[in-house]
Amino acid sequence: MFKFLTGLLILIITMLGAILFIKEDPGFLLVKYRDYSIETSLAVGIIVVAIIALLVYFLLRIMVGIFRLPLSVKRQSQSRRFTKSRKLLSQGLIDLAEGRFALAEKNLIKLVDYSENPLLHYLAAARSAQQQGKYDLRDSYLKVAIEVSPEAEIAIGVTKAELQLSHHQNEQALVTLIHLRSLAPRHDHLTRLMAKVYFQLEDWRALTELLPDIHKKKLFKEDELKVMERVAYKGYLDINANTDNSSLLDLAWEKVPRLLRAEADILIHCVSLYHKANWHLADSEELISTSLDRQWHDGLIDIYGELNPIDGANQLQQAEKWLTNYGENEHLLLALGRICIRAKLWGKAQGYLEASLGIKATPAAYFVLAELFREQLKKQDKAADYYRQGLELSL
């Protein structure tokens, strides 16, 4: 309509211009073809030519419009479908968030071929299928997602691994993540996911290979990382303890981070493994002393009291220093009793052991005191009495 009005305005301006131009001398225009001739004034001729040109122009426009009509209808139909596809994507995401998984999947897939971003449709549809237990269909959606958006292989693969992990498909998730790590070896989120998979699979050897990088980049919250490290390194020590070669356990212990080696539960676990295999942990006395200087732990002092170092006097001095720093404790007093027995300080040993029982009676203290009376002090009745009390307490 606008173009028509514009053309009409141009025609009127042309007519007015022609009239003004030939006002003084109207002239004439002669058109002759064979036996026919037309003669008119110049003004009328110009107006007629302008009208004919305008009619031809609009006629051509109409013909072009008719020719393009099927394409125009097709484009309008596609435009409506594109618009509807965007609405279905939005509705599908809402359905997914609200837990209507079957409806979400239906809306997300319905007009995916007309979407401007089919990747979002397929990723969301995969999550919807996962929630319905349709795991094969989930993988099918993810496969198509890679076909339509090969440049997003990492994003699609991460989604696949996360879904597999949430369904406890740990072996499949590991295969997916190994492939992705070959494409992006320094991708932090992939490292985080692989750590979770190794933890679930109890692959402690592989997990301990990742932990230094994870610790450095702080890829987990501090509390989560501490739990993961403790469990992983304990498991790694267990693996290397189940051999006939003590050097493997030595190497495994050296692999444990220095700060972690000073923690009581890790240290107790490692010393117990050495003791069980009748091996000796080098510097165990120093390690336990360092840990106890930092923080008290009853289990560590129990182990410390059973150690038999070359320098027994230094061991006794160290234990008595803790008695000054931490006060009387039944475990510490029991350890002092054992140390004094090895040092052949029978009276001092008896005093520490009886003091331990005075704070809290334990079967271990009764047994050590009974052994002292039986073997060193040669008081069998007293020894038998302590054996009996210890047995009653343990039962």
Tell me briefly what this model is.
The protein has 395 residues and is an all-alpha fold. It is built from 20 helices and two strands. A two-stranded antiparallel sheet has the order 1-2.
User: How many helices does DSSP assign?
Assistant: 20
Name the overall outline. Answer: rod-shaped
Walk across the major sheet and give the strand order: 1-2
Q: Which blocks of ≥5 consecutive residues have pLDDT under 50?
A: none
Q: What name is given to the CATH topology of the domain at 283-395?
A: Serine Threonine Protein Phosphatase 5, Tetratricopeptide repeat
**What do the pLDDT scores average to?**
87
Please summarize the sheet with the most strands.
Answer: 2 strands, antiparallel
Q: Can you name the CATH architecture of the domain at 283-395?
A: Alpha Horseshoe
Task: Indicate the radius of gyration in whole angstroms.
Answer: 45 Å
Order of helices and strands: HEEHHHHHHHHHHHHHHHHHHH
Percent strand: under 5%
How many angstroms separate the termini? 105 Å
Percent helix, as a range, is over 70%
Which CATH top level class of the domain at 283-395 fits? Answer: Mainly Alpha
- Structural class based on helices, strands and sheet pairing: mainly alpha
- Number of separate strands: 2
CATH homologous superfamily annotation of the domain at 283-395: Tetratricopeptide repeat domain
